[in-house]
Amino acid sequence: MARRISSRLLITGKLIARTPLHVGGTGGNVDTDLALAINGKGEYYIPGTSLAGPLRAWLENDQQESINDWWGYQVADQGQASHVFIEDGFVIAPEGKQIKAEIRDGVGIDRVTGAAANQIKYDRAVLPRGTRVGFTMTVELPADTIEQSQQKLRDKIRVQTSAVLQGLQSGEIRFGAAKTRGMGRIEVHNLEVREQGFLTRKDMLKTLRDESDQPEAAVAPTTAPQPRLTVRIKWQPRGPLMVKAEGDGIAVDMLPLVSAIDEQLTFVLPGSSIKGAFRSQAERIVRTVLGLSAPKPVADKQDFIDQVELHGTRQNGSEDRKNDASLIGWLFGIAGRNEEEEKEEDQRTVLPGLGALMVDDCYAECRIEEQEWGAVEQATNERELRGALDAAQLSQAQQAFHVAIDRWLGSAADGFLYTVLEPHGIVWEEINLTLDLSRIPQDQEKLRSCAVMCLLLVLRDFASGRIPIGFGTNRGMGAVDVTGITIIPRGLDGILTQLQQIRIESGRLAGLSDDLRASLNRAWAQWTEENAL
């Protein structure tokens, strides 16, 4: 017998990507390692499972009571179908245009050499910022019965549906892959909620005629907001700054990475690049305070995984997995494991998985027409290149010539001349970070304080000019000046609310109260003492 429902909520809207979006598909692609999901018509889309999963995960983290009775569950031989149905989200192309996916390079950095790690190179296809995706969600509401449980369930579903919609509207729910590395942040627009009745003839006719009523306003969720810090960094480059694009030009060998935004192009610093630079500095800080030696250089993929997880070795040669994972892993994340690897792990060690720190892509404020950038790429000589740059209002960009020197002859080495298109005088948007402390277990209060302390130490080093970002940081590029840092606490109580008073003075963090400084120092000192040699 089918379950009896009184009505259903029909929720529609458009999801607009505020950062690039990647939801992978099967079948592969000859042009990239990580391809996008494509339906039978060859159109980009977001599977309903990839939409429902983050919504449920966010609600499970936000709500203290179980949501199995309306999102469904299956345990052994017991289970229940979900009251929630989410359709595939089809990517909406601008009128008269096609959606163009972008290819992003991914590379692991050897912690010893500072160069690209051996065998750690991949490409990822992404949908650009501004991509619009249709969203349709249906929620069934149980009919009234003599059982109080059914009436309570209906009220509970209304409240928790309202919570999901609030999470979408606030932009806290991210979708797809690489959510902590610049991707997956969305906004919902044109959100519409209608209720379709089924119990009376009148309600049925209105549903069939698509004359659904607006539902009664649901009671706002009473749970506290998730504890998190939002960090906004105002900055400017001291000189040329860029991330190298995958493709090369004709007149110039290396081009800066550009990305689409509002049907135009602009320079971009991927969140993965910024987060990688911050993580490397955090690892150096942890190795220093714990007395760890640098890890061994990367020879294969497993060596790189060990570098990321272990960070270093004790002076007696023993590896340090558990201690480092308790801070760097929780803050920046550790790759998941298969079932066999999980069985081999110490059962007392809780592995962090997805990190607490999320870093958005950072875009330049200039806008370039697609055909203008195409002329830059296709320029065949220096004169054509200069004309194309001037037409794109990039007159301050310049072609830099580089050459390797033969160590024996002292002259230019044969075959080692290359050029780079270096952007100068570019104004960039703020760098946006989010530290989601709910990712760290609630019973690990000291660990949360240490995560905040570690992030503040990295921000201090960034503000003092110790962390270059982007391409060519060892060859005069990537230096930055930080002009302001704003920290916005949310869902925090106690002394951590004073983080909003932090400011920049002469390249250093200032504004920490004596109580806040003492509290963070105490937690940091205790963690260091427990984990050091």
List keywords for this structure.
533 residues; alpha+beta; Alpha-Beta Plaits; 4-stranded antiparallel sheet; 12 helices; 26% strand
Describe the structure.
The chain is an alpha+beta fold. The protein has a domain at 5-208: Alpha-Beta Plaits (2-Layer Sandwich). The chain has twelve helices and 21 strands. The protein has helices at 48-62, 68-71, 148-170, 201-208, 271-290, 301-310, 322-332, 339-344, 370-378, 382-391, 445-463, 514-531, and strands spanning 5-17, 45-46, 73-75, 78-80, 84-86, 89-92, 102-109, 116-126, 132-142, 186-197, 228-237, 258-261, 264-269, 357-359, 362-363, 398-405, 412-422, 431-436, 480-490, 503-505, 508-510. The strands form seven sheets. Strands 1, 2, 5, 6, 9 and 10 form a six-stranded antiparallel sheet that branches. β16 and β17 form a beta hairpin. The chain is globular.
Q: Judging from the principal axes of the Cα atoms, what is the shape?
A: globular
**Overall number of strands:** 21
Quickly count the helices: 12
Percent in helix? 25-40%
Low-confidence stretches: 217-222, 346-350
CA-CA gap between termini:
65 Å
* CATH-defined topology of the domain at 5-208: Alpha-Beta Plaits
- Broad structural category: alpha+beta
CATH architecture term of the domain at 5-208: 2-Layer Sandwich
> Averaging pLDDT over every residue, what do you get?
82
- Look at the structure and give the CATH class of the domain at 5-208: Alpha Beta
The value of Rg in angstroms is 26 Å
